[in-house]
Each structure stands twice: as C-alpha cells, then as structure tokens.
Amino acid sequence: MKALVIGGTSAIGEGIIKQLIANQFTVEFTYNSNSDKADTLCAAMGTQCTAKQLNLADAQAVNAFTAALTSADTPDVLINVAGITHDALSLGDVGAALAHVHTVNFLSPATICSKVAQLMMEKRQGSIINISSIAAKFPRPGNAAYGSAKAALERFTATLTLEIARFKVRTLCIAPAFVDTPMFQQFAQGREKEILKALPLREVLKVEDVANTAMAFIRGDIKTTGITLALTNGQPVL
User: Fold this and answer.
1) What is the pLDDT of residue 238?
2) Can you tell me where the transmembrane regions are (predicted)?
C-alpha cells in the first residue's frame, strides 16, 4: 500500500506518516524547505519512507509535480496536510496575502487532488484526506485569509466527492481545532493558560488525535465520504 503525504515535515504530517508506516504503508512525502527535518524523518522511518521537495506557493512547481504522476505512481492514499497562516486584518491591500495563503492552503492541494483522484478513478479505489480547520467555521478578526482558504478546500472536497464516489474513491476533510503543535504555540504567544480556560474541554488536541482519525478513515472504520469531520476542543459546530 502506498501513501502520498503533502506537507510531511509539519507536526501533524509527521504524526500521520508514523501512523501510516506503523500500518505497513510505504510513504512518499513532500516538504517545502525543511530538508534537515525531512532527512531525519526518512532516516527514522527507514526504507518505507521517501521525501521530495515541493513549494506549494509555486504553481509551476505544483503543476510539474502533478504532471509527472503516472498510473504506476498512483497512491492508495493521498493526504494534504501542508498549510500556512497569515493573520492580518481584512483591510486595505490584502490581495497579495490572500493569493499566497489561498495558493498554499487551497489551490495547490486542489490541483494535486484533481490529478490523484483521476488516477485513483482508473484503479477504482483510493482515499483522499484533506486537513482543514475549524477556522473555516469560526471566523475571528485577522483570520479571513486562512479561514476562507480552508472553507474553499472543504467545499472543493465535497464537490469532488460527487464526481468520484461511484468510482470507489472516498474523501474526507478533517477539521481540527487547536492542536498542540508549533503553529499553536506561535498563535498562543505565551497565552496558553488563558486559551485553555476558554475551551470547554480545557485542553487542546494532540497530533495523535488527528493521525488516529485519518487512519480510522483509511481503514474503513469511518464509513462515510465527502464530509468534513470536526475535531474540536469542545466547541459545538453547527
């Protein structure tokens, strides 16, 4: 079984790769610039794991990456993990920031999804997981670029499902709330206790919570397709 993970050097990406390897998958993952982390991860995971550099902000590079995929490269599982944030008020000249965040979080993952889904359709099997965020459902000041990009990814995934489900290709968006990652630490900026007090569960998710959910879907323990599954810190999602 083969898996392709886009954004493997992120905390969630690494957690998912470890789960895939533990479940006897061979994994190819992409990374943007952290070659040291990619090399360390490959060394730790052994021959079942390989890495390839890919800048999701570079549309030409993404197009070249997808164009090089052939039926022989068809993964059984595609997981789009990579993402960036850019918190800033939605005022003034926001075009460049919106374009950059949407390219990395939506347009490039959607481009990769489209090609891999086509290959999976030919084999009449496959699972596609896109990592979204509850930021798509919970707007807050400064979060327009990231939240709208993740909302677009969720809508794209739902629509793609209508086109490919009959070919036995399943899709899922996983939308975590706060997860204990460097991205959360950057957001919290020392306000962790204050943030925890505002959460109904008084705790943030662990990387393993996201990775376990992904594996449950891949194994077929979660019998669905085309939905967004929210993993929250207790917040109701309507």
Assistant:
1) 66
2) none
